[in-house]
Design goal:
Two copies of one chain form a homodimer.
Chain A: E1 5-9, E2 25-28, H1 40-44, E3 47-55, E4 58-59, H2 62-75, H3 83-94, E5 101-109, E6 119-126, H4 131-136, E7 138-144, H5 151-154, H6 168-179, E8 184-188, E9 201-206, E10 209-212, H7 223-234, E11 238-241, E12 254-259, E13 263-270, E14 273-274, H8 279-289
Parallel strand pairs in A: 7-8, 7-13, 10-11
Antiparallel strand pairs in A: 1-2, 1-6, 3-4, 3-5, 5-6, 9-10, 9-12, 12-13, 13-14
Helix pairs in contact in A: 2-3
Keywords (chains A, B): Lyase
Organism (chains A, B): Microbacterium sediminicola
GO molecular function, one term (chains A, B): lyase activity
């Protein structure tokens, strides 16, 4: 959906204790040129981002998103974000949200080549209509991520666990899923464990326990997965972080891909094996996720 | 070095048989905003690129670079580039080169989100002074790329072999090399074979034979490596594409990282093990690479 509002941000140092950052913001026409061709985000995907769901103008789970942005910056050795500044930028862009669902995107790039500082911006756009995947569900395929489970710890330069702008592989995995007649993909390790989807986290149900792969090992810690676990715990279910063997996926009692904008999409089949549905729980979970919360 | 000239390009279809593409070019101020925040290159590193060396205004090995650009486009399912159009764009930007060494960069992005077509541009900048690494050599470390040798064939969605804009990992590997007191890195597989450097190819000497890792298996086929092999063959040496076990690196008779702009940088140490130098051959090889050729 077309971006409605865009704010360029001059990033402040993490320890800048100003209370107002308004003079570091500059709104720009989302369709007009705003970035120079020297941008390292564009030349090398060298930067990080967050996508935040907005419900009736309320940005969801801002703390969790900003904590993850800071974690991504640390992994990528970018200057740590000033949390107060980003919080004010989010507050500024959501003023342009209409009723219903929107999405705020935050981008922190390493900056212009040979330039003095990072480049940063925030945008607001209406969210796509995801009622079909939420209600009717999605078919997924498992795709080899090429890594064994030991790689993230062994090779931190592979930046697993950071939400970088280098998403060409994530986009290619979605194209491969579509080519196979599916809607989405689940990455798996070469040694037989489940990781995450290209732009979502997996939650599976085993009896009355809900499990997601441990967010060690280079899996992005999903903000929506955190919210879903909060809801499930409130309902008296057990929630756990565990390694999930790929071959156990055929035997789960239900499964969802959860992400900030599409929210909880129930999985109807994994590699063509039907997965049981739980429409009542899916509906209740999405109703919770669609309620403004922090 | 600061970009001297930038040309935005409206990409023509690969089969567009026009002879003149001048009206698809528009020069822009390299420092001024030229790209919108909806650019997928900047949001997702979703695009491909080439860096071409320019000697006294002559772009080196344009055919090989454009063939690789087309191959990257095919792997990434981008519209295939119109080779005649890119050739004219290169000819246009090199008009702004001074004597000595410059670099032309070509970028083909998937375009603006929800936009109708890819975005493309070409830039010209003076090349950095690489006389020190060419003459004094570089220290390198081997870094785990996380993949075994079978991954590129098994998982084409990982885009190995495409020169994509998603280079955050390549940049992180260079930072890791610097942290270890080295100048550059060589990626190796988890099953013990040599791949490539983050922005260069490896050539090793074993007696009178020169070997580079086979450009199957997800290694970018280096244009400068091709030129170096041409030169070495002219000198009566044998050249070969072969798998190179990582543990054989300690026993090579000489080694170089070769790339389009830095050209042949002799390796003086790999993981702190000294590598024999061949200053005469290195000098002759760089003299050849610095001679205008196609």
């Amino acid at each position: 959906m077309a971006t409605r509002f865009a704010l360029m941000i001059v990033p402040a140092a993490a320890d800048d204790e100003r209370t107002h950052f308004t003079d570091t913001f500059r709104s720009v026409d989302p369709k007009a040129p705003a970035l120079s061709i020297g941008e390292l985000s564009t030349q090398r995907g060298d930067g990080i981002f967050e996508s935040i769901g907005v419900i009736d103008g309320h940005p969801q789970q801002v703390d969790a998103h900003l904590a993850r942005l800071a974690n991504s910056a640390a992994i990528c050795e970018l200057p740590l974000p000033n949390i107060a500044q980003w919080r004010q930028a989010i507050a500024e862009v959501v003023l342009h949200a209409e009723r219903g669902e929107s999405v705020v995107k935050l981008i922190l790039s390493r900056g212009v080549e040979h330039g003095p500082m990072p480049t940063a911006w925030a945008t607001l756009a209406p969210a796509p209509d995801f009622s079909a995947p939420r209600e009717r569900g999605i078919r997924v395929v498992t795709l080899d991520r090429g890594y064994d489970s030991g790689v993230p710890e062994r090779a931190p330069w592979l930046l697993l666990g950071a939400k970088t702008l280098s998403y060409a592989v994530n986009m290619a995995a979605l194209r491969e899923a579509h080519r196979r007649g599916a809607d989405d993909a689940i990455f798996v390790t070469t040694d037989g464990f489940v990781l995450e989807a290209p732009t979502a986290n997996l939650i599976v149900r085993q009896g009355d326990t809900f499990v997601t792969p441990a967010p060690t090992g280079g899996i992005l810690h999903g903000t929506t997965q955190l919210a879903a676990f909060d809801y499930l715990a409130q309902q008296g279910f057990e929630t756990r972080y565990e390694v999930i063997p790929t071959d156990s996926l055929a035997h789960v009692d239900a499964a969802w891909l959860v992400s900030s904008i599409r929210l909880a999409a129930p999985i109807t089949a994994i590699d063509s094996v039907p997965i049981p549905a739980d429409p009542a729980l899916t509906h209740a979970l999405n109703a919770y996720l669609l309620t403004p919360h922090d």
